[in-house]
Amino acid sequence: MDAIPALVAWVGADERYRFVNRAYAGWFGDRPVVGRTIREVVGEAAYERVEPYIQRALAGEALAFESRLPYAEGAREVRVDYAPRHASDGSPSGFYALVRDITAARIAERAVAESEARLRFLDDLGQAVAAETSADAILATTTRMVAQHLGLSNCAYADMDADQDGFTIRGDWAAPGSPSIVGHYRLADFGRLAVQELGAGRPLIVNDNLRELAPEEAKTFQDIGIAATICMPLVKAGRLTALMAIHDRAPRVWTERELALITEVTERSWAHVERARSESELRRLNASLEARVDDEVARRTEAQAALLQSQKMETIGQLTGGVAHDFNNLLTPIVGALELTVRRAEGDERLRTLATGGLQAAERARTLVQRLLSFSRRQHLEPRVVDLQLLLDGMTDLIRRSLGPQIELDVRCEAGLFVRVDPHQLELAVLNLAVNARDAMPAGGRLDFRAWRDSRPLAGEPDWIHLAAVDTGSGMAPEVLERAVEPFFTTKQVGKGTGLGLSSVQGLALQSGGGFRLESRPGEGTTATLSFPAVDAALYRGVAPAARVQPARLDGLTILLVDDEDLVRAATASMLTGAGAAVIEASSGLSATGILGQGVRPDVLITDYAMPGMDGRVLAREARSQHPGLPVLLITGYAHLSETGPVLPRLAKPFTEADLTAAVGRVLQETTGGPSGA
Would you tell me how many other CB atoms lie within 10 Å of the CB of residue 379? Predict the structure, then answer.
């Protein structure tokens, strides 16, 4: 019986345990079980749930049911089988119990159900706005359906003024008892965080403005009946042009799923608005066909092709936004389980081969998800301090080969220019600008790359580093320049370009805290300028070494692991213990703070970002208040994280054991400056 992983017990007619196996005893910790009644062992609440089944089993009935049993932290979902035991005269004398933990299966079922519910809602929303022909009608339907679906007090949309500070809420949906917030406002009145985040093209996320903001900033929200908010920005041509926001009258801890939903809804809403505008343009073209048949037919065909391309790209964007994040969470325990199987398959070459093949397939799946996220501009960036001169020197030969012999290339970069950016994405952006310049100079010309420092005259203002690509190509007309960085806008022939090149360059700049500017005139060439805040040269640590193939050892380290997803937490803990670390697990931020409050001082805190009640950033702040300097690693399956304090090291899901142990080593090295143990 002790070899069976399920819980096995024999209960007498007096409801006292006569025998339990090792798994049953271990379920309840150090408390004795044999000789005690079921009520005493499982507690009053759990006993009331199972008491009717106990009486039926004691009456001689074999039965099965599902319930919840108390566990070390909270409770677990279980399937219970009762089989009656009979005395020599055939009368019931007790029963046998077989209990199996089905928590992981139920969690997976609920996750699938939530994902299906979200996709059904997005499909219903798409059908509801498909027939609308005006932007206001589309956004009015969207705000109503989103607010009702999430149980919000208000959902609104707004247009920004030209000064990038004032904005007008043109329409909203308010729940009964909540005031409408239609009107004109200024970002500055809502505080420094709103200006900083929305001005940089990042979402503003506030769970409780009275606790998270200065009193005068919180008052602006409170005066219009708002305690919690997520405000999503729309950036076009490097400018903040519109907002969509969800609000609640009471404090609310926004979940990662809610953030993903409003992000997806915002992108789809503006896509529908663009669709309505495209259709309106098509109607205008049709009305003038009689006067200019040949010209208008050509323009209508082009507009229809652009509309079809936009709808196709919107569909792909829906797929990436709706599936990629959840798929990352599902891949994490799969990768962990396969790695564990490979390690334990000594002597079973067939099992080892199958598990290795599964790992290779999981790695291909992870690569596919990253490509989808990159395509839809949801990629997780890995910024580090980059020597701009070294990066450009290393790319010069590649750029020259991409341009061809008919274009003269000159690259000049001041020494000592350091920026914090994802180096791989910056290389792709530079190459993208070079290819665009080449296409603008089919007969040949000149392309100059220039990088320089722009010192700020005001005290406390950071210097800026500018990287410009200047070509002598055909240039752009004002109407083309105005739309050049819009997603899916292209002047190339249908099928020759996606219209995502300059949009992705701008996305990188905004995600890195910088900006992107285009200057062009017909016949005078184009200047494309990337700008980033300068960083201290002392932070530069050279080119990172190649990633390790084998997991590093973490012998001697004690790690506090916090994740509310049981499957992900179990897989991560297995990776860490396999590398030699001692792991303390917690399923919530509150549980983790309780462990830390007992005097436990781990070497590293690894925590999920989005958890009910207390997210990973708040937990990190609480942990460091108890243990200053505690190394923290944030793990997440979603790319868009709004940072309101020091940027925490993070590791994207899914990850292998090698990824995880290397990240722990880096966090220890960066935090303590000493040996990492890995």
Answer: 21
